[in-house]
Amino acid sequence: MTRVLVDKIEVQQDGLAFGDPIGCGYHWTEPDEVDAYGDSVRRLAGKVELAVDGFERTATLPEEVFAGEAADALRTRAAKRHEEAVLVRDNLRGLGRAINAYSDVLRRHREGLEQLHARATGQGLDVRGQKIWPPVETIPGDAPQKELDAWERDWKAYQECFETKIELRDARRVATRELIRALADYADVHPDKDRQKLVAASAHQVTFGELRREAAEEAMEAVQAGDHAEAAQRTVDGLKRREQSALGSLEDMVLAERPPAEIQAQAEKVAAIHRELTEARVDAREAQVVADREQAQANRAARHLEDAESGKPRLVAEPVAWQQPTDQAVPVNLKDRLG
Questions:
Q1: In sequence order, what are the residues at sequence separation of 6 or more whose Cβ sits closer than 8 angstroms to the Cβ of residue 2?
Q2: Domain map of the chain by residue range?
Q3: d(CA 292, CA 287)
Q4: Would you say domain 1-198 falls under CATH 1.20.1260?
């Protein structure tokens, strides 16, 4: 069995109480790594912006440049794709900004923990490794005044460190909730729903992020392949209409006893359209085969994601190394077999 996880943004809910050792170790993701990921998401948004511009130019092609039924269909589809691309671009930008903002919080959190450790060390508290230990709980009443003052001073220093740690923790938790809210708003990802689920996947670890990314990529490829198949079929349909129109014109010219040169020219035009139609039909069939294959892969990826989210087992085929059979029989060592 393989545990399916999300990134553990906020899993450890420590019950820190006054008088407990105060941890100063930074155990979260490195801020620079988070920041770099946010930058990569925003760069991806920049690439999507190119698609937005392309769809917008296609959707606004004037009738003088491209007219007809095919042109109208192209403009309609481009307008729809433009709206989808704008939504993807805006979501990526928002998600990238949220991730960058979270990296800044993590950086301040790490710096705050380092300063807390240095302050506790400078004030003479008991610091062992990455933990600040509280002073002794009690002191004899007949202890010298100097020891009493030092004991009280240590507890005040510990209290300051404790309050600083609580502030740092609460600030990070607020930022974590904001990041989770951004994931839900921009990427429809809900980490709190993805915890503690199991799927069967050999000995490999599978994350919901990978499953979602795989499903999204397969879905996008299926959409692109479907669009290509539809465009190829529209080309076939248009060539059919052109062929029928050309054949009709050729028949009219023959019936009207037009000059042989005109009839021959029209016949060559019909033959050329027919050749083009034949090639377009082949392309359309191939495009449909690709579209069916991509759709099947997208359906499979979607089922994997759905099964993982519902906790169902997911079967993964493991390739088995094939060995060339030997012609010579290997003698059986009975001593090895029987001990």
A1: 198, 199, 200, 201, 202, 203, 204, 205, 206
A2: 1-198, 206-318
A3: 9
A4: yes
Residues with Cβ within 8 Å of 263's Cβ and at least 6 positions away in sequence, in order, are 250, 253, 254
* Residue 35, token pair as written in the block: 């920041």
| Residue 306 backbone dihedrals phi, psi, to 5 degrees | -65, -40
Ranges assigned E (strand) in the chain = 2-4, 22-23, 126-128, 131-133, 197-199
Task: Kindly report each contact of residues 133-136 with a partner whose C-beta sits within 8 Å and lies 24 or more positions away, as own/partner.
Answer: 133/21, 134/19, 134/20, 134/21, 134/158
How many helices and strands (H and E) does the chain possess?
6, 5
Instruction: Give the pLDDT confidence of 240-286 residue by residue, as tens digits.
Output: 888 888 888 888 888 888 888 888 888 888 888 888 888 889 888 88
Does the pTM surpass 0.90? The reply is no
Residue given tokens 């502030």 in the structure block: 167
Which tens digits make up the pLDDT trace of 55-108?
Answer: 888 888 787 777 788 778 888 888 888 888 888 888 888 888 888 999 999 999
